[in-house]
Amino acid sequence: MTKTIVFKFGGASVKDASALKNFAEILRNRLRRNMVIVVSAMGKTTNALEAILKLKIDQKDYSSNSANLKDFHLDICKELFPPEHRIFALLENQFLALEKRLQGELTKENYDEFYDAVISVGELLSSKIVMEFLCLNDMVVLWRDAREIIATNSDFRFAKINWEKTRERCKYQLIPNLEKFPVVTQGFIGADEFGKTTTLGREGSDFTAAILASCLGASAVTIWKDVPGVLNADPKKFENTTLFSELDYKQAAEMTYYGASVIHPKTIKPLANSRIPLFVKSFLNPEANGTKIHSLESFEPIPTLILKENQVLVSFKVTDFTFIEESHIHRVYEELRSLKLRVNMLQISAISISLVMDSQPYHFEKLLERLKGLFEIRYNEGLELFTILHPEKDSITPLLDGYDVLLEQSTRNTIQFVRRKK
Ligand SMILES: Nc1ncnc2c1ncn2[C@@H]1O[C@H](COP(=O)(O)OP(=O)(O)O)[C@@H](O)[C@H]1O
Ligand SMILES: N[C@@H](CC(=O)OP(=O)(O)O)C(=O)O
């Protein structure tokens, strides 16, 4: 039996009508049975849905935002489909369901569950459009709801995979489909044991591709991006970048850990465990080789720059002339865990704990509220966390030109700066 391959197309590859036409052309000669096509929401749809939720939480009017989102999808479909095509009824239904969901009560208690139910609509919409567009162009594919395959716990917004159940569903439900047709499904979403929609963490569609590849015993995963492959820095932020033609799983995992957003951090592990190669290729130049991530005997460390924007630096200072001890750290981490806030950098001094994390205003405010009685808290927003892997000595100073450094930390192979533009 031919082994399955998994293709993953992110938001940028399906961001408008011409991107979708290019997407279909990539598949035209590559489509085959035993192929899973994982798609993310179109363009910046997930951000747009988050903005709607923010307005709802602030009890502001979100009607023009949801109308814009609907128009965005409709306009794309008007360019791609004849006017009588059933995609228009499908869209209508999906947006009605979204409206209905948004009218429900949103409280602090049900926020995460509500979030997943709303945010998942982006992937449901895009996968339907993609499936219908491929079929319209004589490429017959099946649509499967990822929530029937990807089994998770009920940790809404950051759901954990139930690997056993997911593996079983892949074997008994997905493989029989794949033996007949290629399958289109959604990245990023799953469902808990009660059938409630969950999500795997922002940008989690790469992870979905890796989960399915691992559970299906796939021979390869290809993620299609708007860059030539994995580079030694984000080409949108740095000049003179170098393409890695290949990377060891460990190198790729390290880069994603520090925030190289080209691959979701959870993607590498399931692939490395099953020795499944991951190709990162450009949807703008599909014939080019891109980057192959697999097991390498040896590799040269190459200086690599990683920038995480929109960071918050917060310090918790003890107020009673004692020193920081384990119980303080434990308490802070307990709150971080319960609020699902991930720490990107940690520094502990005699009297304070300093943390750097992604800005998440709603949850961050809660953190401050919960810990304000125990610590004197100070924070700075709008910062960047700049990490250099395998730095070359003389190259660092110019990279900090025009910035104030608020915090610095280094190990043998890594140096990190929390910086702010002067
Ligand atoms: N080291 C890197 N190499 C290549 N691209 C990078 C790197 N670090 C960050 N990026 C960014 O990752 C983007 C692709 O990832 P992403 O936007 O998540 O794609 P998608 O949402 O389409 O899957 C690129 O456009 C690039 O700006
Ligand atoms: N749409 C989701 C999931 C995702 O992975 O998207 P992308 O593949 O475009 O990064 C998000 O934006 O978080």
Automatic annotation (TrEMBL):
It catalyses: L-aspartate + ATP = 4-phospho-L-aspartate + ADP. Keywords: Amino-acid biosynthesis, ATP-binding, Kinase, Nucleotide-binding, Transferase. It holds the Pfam family AA_kinase. CDD domains: AAK_AK-HSDH-like (cd04243). Residues 3-282 form the Aspartate/glutamate/uridylate kinase domain. GO terms for molecular function: aspartate kinase activity. It is an enzyme of class 2 (transferase). The keyword Glycoprotein does not apply. Coiled coil: none annotated. Pathway: Amino-acid biosynthesis; L-threonine biosynthesis; L-threonine from L-aspartate: step 1/5; Amino-acid biosynthesis; L-lysine biosynthesis via DAP pathway; (S)-tetrahydrodipicolinate from L-aspartate: step 1/4; Amino-acid biosynthesis; L-methionine biosynthesis via de novo pathway; L-homoserine from L-aspartate: step 1/3. Its EC number is 2.7.2.4. InterPro entries: AceGlu_kinase-like_sf, Asp/Glu/Uridylate_kinase, Asp_kinase, AsparK_Bifunc_asparK/hSer_DH. PANTHER family: ASPARTATE KINASE (PTHR21499), ASPARTOKINASE (PTHR21499:SF59). Belongs to the aspartokinase family. This is Aspartokinase. It comes from Algoriphagus pacificus. The lineage of its organism: Bacteria, Pseudomonadati, Bacteroidota, Cytophagia, Cytophagales.
